[in-house]
From TrEMBL:
Membrane-spanning ranges: 166-185, 191-221, 260-277
Name assigned to this protein: Translocation protein SEC62
Keywords for this protein: Endoplasmic reticulum, Membrane, Protein transport, Translocation, Transmembrane, Transmembrane helix, Transport
Family per similarity comment: Belongs to the SEC62 family.
Species this chain originates from: Trapa incisa
Amino acid sequence: MKKSGGAAAAEKKRVRRSPGALQSISRDSNSDGPPKKQAPKKDVFQLFAEKVRDHKGLESRWAVLQETRVEYFRGKDFVSFLKNNAEVKEILGSDKNLEIEDIGNDLLRKNLIVRCDRVVKTVRPGKKKLSTWPAHLEIFPEQVFSDNDAFFAWAFVKRHPLWQTLLSFFWPVLTLAICLFPVYPHQVKLLILYSCAGILLLILSLLFVRAAMFGVLYIILGKRVWFFPNILAEEATLRELFRFCPKKDEEERPKWTTRLFYAIVAVLVILLLRHHAPDEAARARYQKRVSNIIDDVLEWSPKLALSGMMEKQPTVVNATESNCSSADCANAGSDVGGANAETPAEKHVEEVGDVEETVQFPQHGDDI
């Protein structure tokens, strides 16, 4: 009986010390504590919308929607994009086999996109059809996906890329560098000056060549062709800003009388500018004036400015030296007057001498 009791006690100790029991105890202790918070899983449609928006295959534009700039796309472009890029739908997981219309409706239901409509719904005078990409939009009453002249604006904030974040920190540094331009070395000033002048000359030359080509093609062929069509656009992305290909001319061809009128005006303007062109002397004066301005800008420095300010300041006399007592000033005056004073006899002799010099008496034998 004692042996059986001892064996039972040993078995109990083994059970207590067994690793399985320890694991179960640790699990129980962990279960007693507060449950760990799991990171919220991002919606697959949110990831899908971000992927589609960042993709270069979907063409989009910027417009004004209720006084807010939004990025929008066309419904037919969205349909063609998903047909040509079926791998993008892999992000949806189990919903990747949905129809394109169902995917668009899900995006609308989750407020990731908003259906919009053009504000101007009539054809403007001189045009054949409505604008392909309107600049002003309004919310469409029925929020249902469609690819028939439907526009959809992204309703979530786009994540900024790294280069935009770095650029936001770079602007204050650039502003500070511009303010410190006067203290730069002379060679650095020359480099900055010629770089800015070159960029400005490039921009003006580009605008001039662009306008000249437009005028020549308009007068000769009657075509409205603008190279770099978005170079002066206020609402355009960086990629659209430097796009070289011109837009398709959707307006009516101008009449020959209009083209002839503009041709005559262009010839008259050229002749007028040629007639009033400055001569060599005027050009030399302008060049000298500009060179003097550039030299003043390059040679200016805070040291020269401070030295000029010091030279313009009036000299300050010490107050202790100027404010003397009345008795001392009177004594000093009397001393000076006493040293240089003349007697009355000396004054009389000097007066008589002056009279003799001014008055000449006639001599004997002269005619009176």
